[in-house]
Amino acid sequence: MTDDATRATCVPRLHTGRAGFRESFKRLFFFHPDEFRSSLPGEPDGNGLASLTAAHSQERKVLNCNSDISSMKKIVSWAFYDWANSAFATTVMAGFFPVFFKQYWSAGREVTLSTFHLGAANSAASIIIALMAPILGAIADRGSSRKKFLFYFASMGIVMTGSLYFVAQGDWELAVLIYALAAVGFSGGNIFYDSLIVIVATQDKLDFVSGLGFALGYLGGGLLFAANVLMTLMPHSFGLADATQAVRVSFVTVAVWWAVFSLPIFFFVKEPKSRGRKVGKAVVIEGFRQLRSTFGKIRKLRVAFLFLIGYWLYIDGVDTIIRMAVDYGLSLGFSSQSLLTALLLTQFVGFPSAIVFGKLGERLGSKTGIYIALVVYLGVTIYGYFMQRESEFYILAVVVGLVQGGVQSLSRSFYARIIPRGQAAEFFGFYNMLGKFAAVIGPLLMGWVSLLGGDPRYSILSISLLFLCGGCILYFVDEEEGRRLAAEIDAASVPEPGEAGG
Questions:
Q1: Residue 81 and residue 261: Cα distance in Å, rounded?
Q2: Please, which residues have CB within 8 angstroms of residue 502's CB and are 6 or more apart in sequence?
């Protein structure tokens, strides 16, 4: 049997139709090598060395096939968590909660006051995660507890999101508390989700796997968001009383979606035991020691440190455009319905684009891919300055969708290459900490420039400074040097024989 024929037999055949989809899913997640072995010709028949050699060759192909299936299962299972939790980011954070908070839970209150309450909730959740992230990451690394912490935070986010259904009209205090806890669960879970990428992907596949996660996130979040929007527009078609009930039920659908599609990562991604693994209080003590040690080694990790500075600047620009685009469109007199449509458009364009950027990173390098995205974002700021019509806002939404997932996914995979694998959760804690502190400079810069210049169009141009500064710092980040330094730290962290098992 040729290698191509073996590979064709190895890959589970896709079936069509509802029953066929179930069969394909079963073959991917429950495939057994015996199924492949039975399809191979030439089992040893006792006729000599040739038969035995052929049998050994076929057995090796079986093992390689099984390894490929297992690897794909882990990758898809990991990426599906992005599909799962992105429903919260789109339907809750970006879509319904801000509007519902103003019009339902804060009904009768000053608009500026409700804006302050919502902003305070977002800031509080971000600060909590930013302060906790490195410590939690260090603890998870020492105890091989990344999946355990992911489960805790995801469960909190899921339960809190579903609980929004029960918050009565006018009870803004409870609504904002539950929302803040859900946001902590969402952001906290991402720390450990991101850190698991070094387990499911090899170095040469980091770009593709990271891009696959973002792509599924855009598609999954966009699909549920589109369904939720239809529920609010045609509530009677879904057996709902009105749009208010539709929004409340949407929160429940997000919780169910998040819970169901999180299952693969917990069942099929196996976290290896760390060397010198600790338990109980020892995990916490060792976690704080590791965190202190990492601060002490920051000079040795100068490449990762330099990247984080550049990342913080340009991702601040990216997040600012995400958060301020609707406000900027409203300030230009565009309708809210058009802006909502543009948001959906960005989601669906982002799905294939994130995958394309993953392949682009494999071919040209992550750093080059990030530079391409930053150049496009510079063009977005210039185009936004001259924008006059709503149709141009749709064009802007498409362009942003083309690069938004790409710059995020390639930044994640590039960072994963230049950090110690044995301390991935801790270092992704720092990474996510900076992500939480992003969109701090940008909105302030936009507001200050708009106030100073008397025209909101000047404000969008000011964001270009963040992309330029971040790109300039990225130029000095040496990926090969970063890999070498990370490998040295991993090698130095191997415990003495007497320490194993702690």
A1: 6
A2: 276, 277, 278, 279, 282
Per-range mean pLDDT, top range of 49-63, 283-297, 415-429: 415-429
* Cα angle 388-393-397, degrees, rounded to a multiple of 5: 155
Domain closes at, from 24, 42, 67: 67
Least confident of 387-391, 433-437, 448-452: 433-437
Q: Cα(121)–Cα(115) distance, rounded to whole angstroms?
A: 10
With beta carbons less than 8 A apart as the criterion, state whether 291 and 140 touch: no
CA distance 430 to 450: 32
Q: How far apart are CA 126 and CA 413, in angstroms?
A: 23
Residue 479's identity, in one-letter code, is E
DSSP string for residues in 417-482: HSS-GGGHHHHHHHHHHHHHH-SSHHHHHHHHHHHHHS-HHHHHHHTHHHHHHHHHHHHT--HHHH
- Tell me the C-alpha distance between 167 and 142, whole Å: 39
Kindly tell me the number of DSSP H helices and DSSP E strands found in the chain: 21, 0
Nearest to 420 by CA among 294, 261, 333: 294
Q: Provide mean pLDDT across the span 56-67.
A: 54
**Model confidence over 291-333: pLDDT tens digits?**
666 666 655 678 888 998 999 899 888 877 876 676 677 677 7
Number of domains making up the chain? 2
**Rounded to an integer, what distance in angstroms lies between the CA atom of residue 389 and that of residue 382?**
15
Per-residue pLDDT tens over the stretch 180-219: 899 889 988 988 898 888 888 887 888 888 888 888 988 8
Domain that holds residue 378: 297-494
Alpha-carbon distances, residue 492 vs 294, 495, 502 (angstroms):
13, 8, 17
CATH number, domain with residue 435: 1.20.1250.20
Q: Taking the model in full, what pTM does it have? A: 0.68
Rounded alpha-carbon distances, angstroms, from residue 65 to 58, 77, 100, 271, 365: 10, 18, 51, 21, 28
